[in-house]
Specification:
Number of helices: 12
Shape: globular
Mean pLDDT: 84
Distance between the termini: 59 Å
CATH class: Alpha Beta
Order of helices and strands: HEHEHHHEEHEHEHEHHEHH
Radius of gyration: 27 Å
């Protein structure tokens, strides 16, 4: 009687037919992981400051509500955490918000207007952050107040020169939070700057204003202009409902400093007066701001990559070409 059950025979290697063939386990190629390890080691060191100090950087956009003040607060504190001395100037006259995002609204007693009028010294108008002593805030004016008629770009240039001569030493970075629009406040804010960070969102209205502001910055002699794309949603990019970062970069033709994803934690941190970069554990938007600050220190930029589009759902009749 024949049995239908047979024992499985071992695979035989044609090179040695008498020995069973044992499958070989493939080991990962170490060269594929060398880039990730290299970048991890790079971010564990302190970045090398490029350029002459102080680096006067204006953060602008043209359109309001795209995240200029949020970018100023988070990048400023990220620079302070990296060990650099930072002075952030809120140049929005009458509508200042930078002190709220930093949680310093109750400590602003003097502003630049009082300094110019001789009512106080410059060091009295500087508000030092208690969390990071190398970060200071300077407001142009108090809410609902008007600037004197003589205040303009020359006054802000004098202010920057006075910051360079501080007894404690010249700061490494002077960040100027520029007001929205392209009126006199914008012209005043960009006058002392030699670098610019353009904040935009991937929508048509913000991009048109950003393109206009880029031309004005170049006319003012600011050639070093980098871009931060804020509130990016990869799900909408895959569904072709939002322009990709690569499309934004091709439209504006600017170097990319950072890409900030959409994050609901931004509203919570704003209401608490606690910037994203100080959150533990860090959020994706907070990490993106820290990486943008790192690139700003070394005058580096990043490269945008194309996000694969979401494959469209195919129905039953698509088999027949429908």
């Amino acid at each position: 009687m024949l049995s239908l059950q047979t024992q499985p025979k071992p695979f035989l290697n044609p090179q040695s037919p008498l020995k069973p063939f044992t499958p070989r386990t493939l080991k990962p190629n170490k060269s594929r992981f060398s880039t990730a390890i290299h970048s991890l080691l790079q971010y564990n060191r302190k970045p090398q400051l490029a350029g002459e100090t102080p680096r006067v950087v204006v953060i602008t956009s043209g359109k309001g509500g795209v995240g200029k003040t949020t970018t100023t607060a988070n990048i400023g504190l990220s620079l302070a955490r990296l060990g650099f001395s930072v002075v952030a100037i809120d140049a929005d006259v009458g509508l200042r918000n930078l002190d709220l995002l930093l949680g310093l609204e109750n400590r602003v007693n003097y502003t630049v207007v009082e300094v110019l009028n001789g009512d106080c010294r410059l060091d009295q108008a500087l508000v030092r952050d208690k969390r990071w002593s190398n970060f200071e805030l300077l407001c142009i004016s108090k809410p609902r107040s008007k600037l004197p008629l003589g205040f303009g770009g020359r006054a802000l240039v004098w202010l920057v020169d006075a910051l360079k001569q501080k007894p404690e030493g010249c700061p490494d970075f002077i960040l100027i939070d520029c007001p929205a629009g392209i009126d006199a406040g914008f012209i005043t804010a960009i006058t002392p700057a030699n670098e610019a960070v353009l904040v935009t969102t991937p929508d048509i209205t913000a991009l048109r204003d950003a393109d206009r502001v880029t031309g004005l910055l170049e006319c003012d002699g600011i050639r070093d202009v980098k871009m931060i794309v804020n509130r990016v949603r990869t799900d909408m990019i895959k569904g072709e409902d939002m322009m990709s970062v690569l499309d934004v970069q091709e439209m504006l033709g600017l170097a990319l400093l950072g890409v900030i994803p959409e994050d609901s934690e931004v509203i919570r941190s704003t209401n608490r007066g606690y910037p994203l970069v100080l959150n533990k554990p860090p959020t994706l938007a907070g990490l993106a701001f820290e990486q943008a600050a790192w690139r700003l220190v070394e005058q580096d930029s990043m490269k945008a990559v194309m996000v694969e589009e979401e494959p469209k759902k195919r129905g039953f009749f698509s088999f027949f070409g429908g």
